[in-house]
Amino acid sequence: GFRKAQKSYNKALMDHPQTKVYADYGTAAMARICHSLGGLPTRNFTEGNFESLEDISAETMRDQLLERGGDSNTTHTCMVGCVIRCSNVYADGNGKEVVSPLEYETIGLLGSNLGIGNLEKVAKLNWEANDLGLDSIELGAALAVAAEAGKMEFGNFKQALELIGEIRAGTPTGLVIGNGAVSTGLAYQIERVPVVKGQAMSAYDPRAIKGTGVTYATSPQGADHTSGLTIRAKIDHLDPHIQIDVSRKAQINAAGYDTLGVCAFAGFGFGSAPETISALLQARYGWDVPGDVLQELGRQTLILERKFNRRAGFSKDDDRLPVWMTREELSPHNAVFDIPNADLDKVFDWIDEDDR
């Protein structure tokens, strides 16, 4: 029954190499991967490599936490029963907790994207975001746009804290930045604002990781990496001709996981042993479901989300990346986002036209 299916799933999950990496290094392991692909957002998405990568890498964070001790923890569960244990507790030099966890997305947006190459400073900015109830991705994107407008210098931690202080105080400047990247770009007349459908992009530059760019553009949820991240696909991420199907499959699977209520990283196990999904559902609820139940749930969910967006006023014209990303080259590959709009419009061509 259920225990048998659970055991099969847990074995598949524990045998997956990514599970071991995440237990040791957490999501911060993505910093080096994105840097190697030329897709690590740096100084408001103007570069794909960061010269201080080593200072914000997962390896550096792990070494720091092991040395500091105290509240530090390189791996722990964010919920009871998790066998991946990708969370962490980041402590300062005295071993006192600053924030838990310190994730890759935060390291990317509040670190390299602001030109800040110091994990302790990033953790303190993360604490500020948490205390204010702000998303660290959106805050990092907004601060970088503000930096481009001359409101702070890239790499200046003190000035970043001062701008966050403006948010806390509710000043006009704070209201502009606190309302996110779009608000900041409009107020200061900056074109280079990395958003889709009003939501800031996470720490994967879509010009270097183009499948994720397709997801950013077309996902009903906006520029959300959790809607269909493609970075683990064994493909040429710069090739504009092969990304549509990769993103489509990733989005369907991601929506399926969301509907099941499981962590996205559960996909490590389900990807290796997909039969365990239907086995677990059958054992727990008595449902006789098909082997592709994950994909069927994902498709139904995306149909509903697309319907909602259409009724809210979104159209295919909103399924686009910012125009500047189609013309501004990203180092080190001098890449632009060059997937045609006509191809983007095919991501959901499996949905009836009235529901798209």
Q: Which whole number gives the mean pLDDT?
A: 96
The helix count comes to: 16
Q: pLDDT below 50 for ≥5 consecutive residues: which ranges?
A: none
The CATH class is Mainly Alpha
Radius of gyration: 21 Å
| Element-level helix/strand string | HHHHEEEHHHHHHEEHHHHHH
CATH superfamily: Aldehyde Ferredoxin Oxidoreductase Protein, subunit A, domain 2
- Largest sheet report: 3 strands, antiparallel
Helix content: 40-55%
User: How far from one another are the termini?
Assistant: 39 Å
- Overall 3D shape: globular
CATH architecture: Orthogonal Bundle
Number of strands: 5
Beta-strand residue percentage: under 5%
Which secondary-structure class do the elements indicate?
A: mainly alpha
Main β-sheet, spatial strand arrangement:
1-2-3
Using the coordinates shown, work out and report the CATH topology: Aldehyde Ferredoxin Oxidoreductase Protein, subunit A, domain 2
Number of individual domains: 1
Fold and architecture overview:
The protein has 356 residues and is mainly α. The protein has a single domain (2-355), classed as Orthogonal Bundle (Aldehyde Ferredoxin Oxidoreductase Protein, subunit A, domain 2). 48% of the residues lie in helices and 4% in strands. The protein is built from 16 helices and 5 strands. The two termini are 39 Å apart. The mean pLDDT is 96.
